[in-house]
Amino acid sequence: MALRFRQVRRPLSKATSFLVPILLALALAPPRAAASSGWEVVSSPAVPSGELLAVGGSSPTDVWAVGSWFKPSTSSFLSLAMHWDGTKWRLAFTPSEGDWNQFRGVAVLSPTNAWAVGIGNNYSTLLEHWDGTSWTLVQNAPFGAGTPLYGITALSATDVWVSGGGSTPFVAHWDGLVWREVPTVDLGGAYSILYKIAAVSSNDVWAAGFVETRLGEQTLVEHWDGTKWTVVPSPHPNSDDYIRSLTAVSAKDVWLGGEWFGDAPQYTEHPLVEHWDGTTWSLVKSPPGTDPWDIVGLSATDAWMVGDQGFYVTLLEHWDGSAWSIVQSPVGGPGDSELNGATKLTDGTLWAVGSWEPSGSGDQPLTMRLASG
Length: 373
What we know:
The protein is globular. The protein is an all-beta fold. The chain is built from no helices and 28 strands.
């Protein structure tokens, strides 16, 4: 079985929690789904124990999906990347070092310029670049051990941001020549991660995740105004909550997604969805029993959220400008399935990626598409 993207929830701050397969299921039945909205499963290479965690593309004929897979002969987790050329998915070789490598984000600027980020051996930075021919490890960036990367966003070839963290939140910027760390606000927690980063413009960038405080794990939202990062307060439904998805449509339309937990001893999981209207963050109701992992926004009345809805059943949720509602997924049983990442292309096409067990016998990558129009 593949290593599940699901990490141990309590405590989320332990580095080892990201290495432990978990098969937790909610005790609630999945919410009823609405009619199908045109999503389709697209055939992709059946990598044994493979899981896709992020997807990005520069055009309908240039899409990358990334994640990890387990190689039994060496007991290693290796980085995984596959490319969509408009007709089919093809695997691409990516360098790996040691026995632990996992891509967690990808940004695609053109067919000859893409970046992938993640977790490398010894819980270090994994940063690779695509030049149109091959993926290469970037080893001269000022990151290093204890600084895994989780998020990436790109405005241009000379304006790329990555985020992550460990003992402190971490952000770095690529100006076309070098990577430089850009100091964030450290609230002094024992552990802080900025899971996602998204940009509206060069002076309007958001990063979000969590910080572990004496009260528990709490949402951490920071904003770049072109000069510095500042913390922007966001709602806390309880003492334990965190963010793992982020999309920025405009300066007045930004979404966050994650989870909040009920009180001890059950620590019941609840979906956490928040919206920025240009002035404040506010909580937005989402169907109970759902587990959002990524959000992609198209307009003020059109956004999608992906994840799972208990018992590892793929989740598709749509925002119509007034409410979130569950949309029927084209993926059925008998095996587990989940969606971890989503993206929109220039023509409006949406891609979502994750993992599934189409025959009920083992995990493999899952890719789904919603055609534009």
